[in-house]
Amino acid sequence: MTETATFPDLNGKSVFITGGGSGIGAALTDGFLAQGAKVAFVQRSDASEFVAAMAAKHGQAPLFIPCDITDIAALQGAIAQASAAHGPVTALINNAANDKRHSTEEVTEEFWDWMMAINQKAYFFACQAVIDGMKAAGGGSIVNFTSISYMMGQDGYPAYITGNSGINAMTRGLAREFGPDKIRVNALAPGWVLTDKQKEMWVTPEALAAHIDKQCLKETLAPEDMIEPTLFLASNASRGMTGQSMVVDAGVVVSG
């Protein structure tokens, strides 16, 4: 059994995760609870069974708030609810995304707006909603999940990669703006993480073999592989790091 690193300053921290009940988000909720953090998360689908499983595992249930993150008022309300329950959110993890496959020719204005609403707009307004609380608390950490897809020049979802590239620009701008308030903003760019959704919809033996051939490390990535990098970015272990994009992709792209 692999041991997980311990970050003592995360014990008792108020953490808010978008999409925290499935896929990578569920792994992150599990990982933060294991550190003793107070976790609240949002997602559209019911997460009651997951919440019960986490309560049984950790002796502490995460706060699940049903929410469509494209409804900005509802998202802001959920962050306010989490802050009332756990104290000001001092670790925001913008994880929820949608990488629906599409071609440039079939993109409509409505589809474009929907993709941006999920993959970029909600990130910005979640950041905006936690800023005052982080200032009052003396600082905080924001982790914006992006993707290596735009670094690879990946085809098959142009609106998605556009949104992901914009997340990095937003991350750098907010890091500069709120650094004086001791608020750190970083991006985390996973490679191809084999969530249940990915396995059900897009993983084929041929596609997976081709992708692993591009990796330096010849192993597939699981949601659990994103836990410790996220904990690191949320914790004081990365106190001198902001405005950066950290790649966790088994060695497909090179940043820096």
Automatic annotation (TrEMBL):
Domain Ketoreductase: 13-195
Gene Ontology MF terms in the entry: oxidoreductase activity
Domain of life: Bacteria
Keyword tRNA processing: no
Matches recorded under InterPro entries: KR_dom, NAD(P)-bd_dom_sf, SDR_fam
Gene3D superfamilies: NAD(P)-binding Rossmann-like Domain (3.40.50.720)
Keywords: Oxidoreductase
Family indicated by similarity: Belongs to the short-chain dehydrogenases/reductases (SDR) family.
Database matches in PANTHER family: OXIDOREDUCTASE, SHORT-CHAIN DEHYDROGENASE/REDUCTASE FAMILY (AFU_ORTHOLOGUE AFUA_5G02870), SHORT-CHAIN DEHYDROGENASE_REDUCTASE FAMILY PROTEIN
Record protein name field: 3-oxoacyl-ACP reductase
